[in-house]
C-alpha cells in the first residue's frame, strides 16, 4: 500500500517529461544556473557584462567580455583633443555597443545602443524621461560631440551610468530644453563610465 502514491505519480512524471521534450527541446546549457536568467548583458555600476575598468582595450578582451555575441570592428577617433581607440560591437550592419578608451589602455567608456540590454535598474532604450525624472536640474546636462542635440542624465543613485535622451527641440543648441519638453524624450543610449561622477 505504501507504494501506491509513487505508482500513481510515475505516469504523471513520465507524461510531463515527454511533454517537455516536445516543447522546445532545451539544450543542456539551459540547465546551467548561470544561464537561467538568459545570457543578455546588463549595464551595472561595475560595467557591462564582463567588461569593466580593469578590462584591457583589446579585441580579444572585448570579445570575451561580450561573450562573443557580436562581431567587432575597431577604429580611432579624437575626443577633447585626445586620441581614442574604440571597438564597435556589430549585429549585422547595426552598431549595438561602442567600447572605448585610450590606445593600449583599459576600457573607459561603454556606449550601449542595443534595445535588448537594460541597466540594473530596468531602464532600456526607449524609456521615457518622465518615468525617471521630474526635472533636469542637478541630474542632467547638454550632451557633447555627436550628442550635442541630446541631453545626458546620471542614472538615479549612480556614479558610473548615464542615460542619453533624444527628442524634438526647436530651441537654440546651447540651451537645455525645458522640463516640459523633456517629458516626452526617450533614452537613446545607456553609457557606462569607468571614472565616477564628481561630487
Automatic annotation (TrEMBL):
Keyword Transcription belongs to the record: no
PROSITE patterns reported for this sequence: PROKAR_LIPOPROTEIN
InterPro entries: DUF1131 (IPR010938), YfeY-like_sf (IPR038714)
Keywords, sorted A to Z: Lipoprotein, Signal
N-terminal signal peptide: 1-21
Name of the protein this chain belongs to: RpoE-regulated lipoprotein
Amino acid at each position: 500500500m505504501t507504494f501506491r502514491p509513487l505508482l500513481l505519480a510515475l505516469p504523471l512524471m513520465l507524461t510531463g517529461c515527454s511533454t517537455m521534450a516536445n516543447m522546445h527541446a532545451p539544450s543542456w546549457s539551459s540547465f546551467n544556473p548561470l544561464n537561467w536568467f538568459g545570457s543578455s548583458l546588463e549595464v551595472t555600476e561595475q560595467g557591462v557584462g564582463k567588461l569593466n575598468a580593469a578590462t584591457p582595450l583589446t579585441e580579444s578582451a572585448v570579445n570575451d567580455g561580450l561573450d562573443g555575441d557580436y562581431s567587432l570592428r575597431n577604429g580611432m577617433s579624437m575626443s577633447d583633443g585626445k586620441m581614442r581607440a574604440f571597438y564597435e560591437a556589430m549585429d549585422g550592419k547595426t552598431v549595438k555597443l561602442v567600447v572605448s578608451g585610450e590606445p593600449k589602455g583599459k576600457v573607459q567608456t561603454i556606449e550601449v545602443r542595443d534595445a535588448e540590454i537594460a541597466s540594473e535598474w530596468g531602464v532600456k532604450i526607449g524609456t521615457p524621461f518622465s518615468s525617471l525624472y521630474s526635472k533636469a536640474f542637478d541630474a542632467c546636462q547638454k550632451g557633447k560631440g555627436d550628442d550635442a542635440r541630446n541631453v545626458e542624465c546620471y542614472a538615479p543613485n549612480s556614479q558610473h551610468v548615464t542615460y542619453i535622451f533624444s527628442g524634438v527641440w526647436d530651441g537654440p543648441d546651447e540651451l537645455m530644453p525645458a522640463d516640459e519638453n523633456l517629458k516626452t524624450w526617450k533614452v537613446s543610449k545607456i553609457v557606462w563610465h569607468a571614472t565616477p561622477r564628481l561630487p
